Amino acid sequence: YIGVIGEGGYIWYNAASMDNSGVEATFTWRDEIKDFKYDISFNISYYKNEITELPDVIKYTWGGGNGVDKTIVGQPYGSWMSYKADGVFKTKQEVYEYLSKYDVQIGAPGVGRIRYKDLNGDNVINTADMDWQGSDQPKFIGGLNIGASYKGFDFSAFFNGMIRDAWNNSKFYTDLFQGWTGNHSVRLMDAMHAWNDYEQTGVYNCDIPALTVVDNNVETRSSTFFIEDGSYVKLKTLTLGYTFPDKWIKKARLSNLRVYLQAQNVFTLTNYTGADPEGLGYPYPQPRTYTFGLSLGF
Q: Which SUPFAM superfamilies does the annotation name (predicted)?
């Protein structure tokens, strides 16, 4: 958006251009065996997105209010410019070796703190080590419809899914504790127990940072620590129904009568640790709902 002269607000302005290209394919099969009928339909799509033009006065724009996504020429919409996280320091020896090799200008490495890679190879850890780490634009999107009927019974199921990366904002609360108020995840108990064990063994055995009330290592910075595999497969809709025979419903002066039970958002298969890979960011996950229906025709 661009500011309006003499006004305090903003208006949206269509000032950018992007190129979308890709391939879509759909496969369908229908068959019947006596009274049993079934159909299967599968679709898959691949596309590539790239920003091709921004106004001359704009180098890049921020994305959807999360302070992470950037829109810049030559990259997909909403790309991530981030540090490359390289696990967590487990021992003091790892910290000493890191500090002896690199001039760390941002952050304060220590046991239980996130380690960041020297991406440009100059043995200095600073903003020059930030690089494009992808975006949440889908690489592949797919859907599967299955339908079947036998005499009066019918069944249908719809699956959808995609392959993509995801920026998990919820890790600020589930995997980090910087003294913020609000609710946090029980995962932080793992970090607390790991630190207690470290004091006995000298090894911090946990994949999330140790608890701290001061972010000396600047771990809230944009980094791949927050990027996860956001791919998923979801059983979106499942329906079971029964249509009564004509000889049963004619006495009631009905032309048709069908009852059905439908479930939505039945289950999700994913490695994403946030609430719902289908809706990234801070929204509530989509609820699982059950519906019983009765369809009448007079």
A: Porins
